[in-house]
Write a structure and sequence with these properties.
Elements: H1 14-22, H2 24-40, H3 45-59, H4 62-66, H5 69-79, H6 98-103, H7 115-129, H8 138-147, H9 150-172, H10 180-185
Helix pairs in contact: 1-2, 2-9, 3-7, 3-9, 7-9
């Protein structure tokens, strides 16, 4: 049950309703941030999906966990007035399968992730669960810099931050009662 009033006619997209009706300027900025990630990130789709899905698990957001970028991102960008031709999906690249998503929670023991994907998963956990732990962990930064450029590290960190913020809003206010397919159809 949503923690803010959602009228019956908005039940298919409680998240969209809450953002547009209760905090329209901040909601629009949050939506623009999320759209920018999906439209402008230069990271490979699988790297982004690893980070996004692990962040969704940590946040507890059911909408985020039901999302699959290869299936949903272009609709999300289009709904937000963005340029689908510039999306992370339109750029191409291998899309994760369901085995990939099933392995994310126990990624350390899985054999289906590249080094960049593993670091994206670890970065997601560290950003969400231990932001103070970065300061003096030089071996971690050495590994991160060996796999990513500075541009990519900033891109990844901003992307995780967008998902962390918006996913937590969605979950905390219990606006995550519908799956992504239902939200986009509403």
């Amino acid at each position: 049950m949503a923690r803010v009033t959602i009228p019956e006619e908005a039940a298919g997209n409680p998240y969209g309703y809450a953002l547009s009706q209760y905090a329209p300027k901040i909601g629009a900025a949050g939506g623009a941030f999320a759209t920018a990630v999906y439209q402008s990130s230069q990271l490979p789709l699988r790297v982004l999906e690893a980070a996004r899905y692990r962040t969704a698990q940590i946040n507890g957001c059911m909408v985020c966990q039901s999302m699959r970028a290869a299936k949903h991102v272009d609709q999300f960008i289009e709904a937000g007035g963005g340029d689908v031709a510039q999306s992370i999906v339109a750029r191409g690249g291998a899309a994760p399968d369901e085995h990939f998503f099933a392995a994310v929670e126990n990624w350390r023991d899985a054999d289906c992730f590249s080094e960049q994907e593993r670091l994206a998963l670890e970065h997601s956990e560290r950003v969400a669960q231990d932001p103070r732990g970065f300061a003096n962990d030089e071996p971690y930064w050495t590994r991160l810099h060996a796999a990513f450029t500075d541009d990519e590290i900033v891109d990844l960190t901003l992307s995780i931050s967008a998902w962390m913020a918006m996913g937590r809003v969605t979950h905390i206010l219990e606006l995550d009662t519908v799956c992504m397919d239902d939200m986009l159809a509403a």
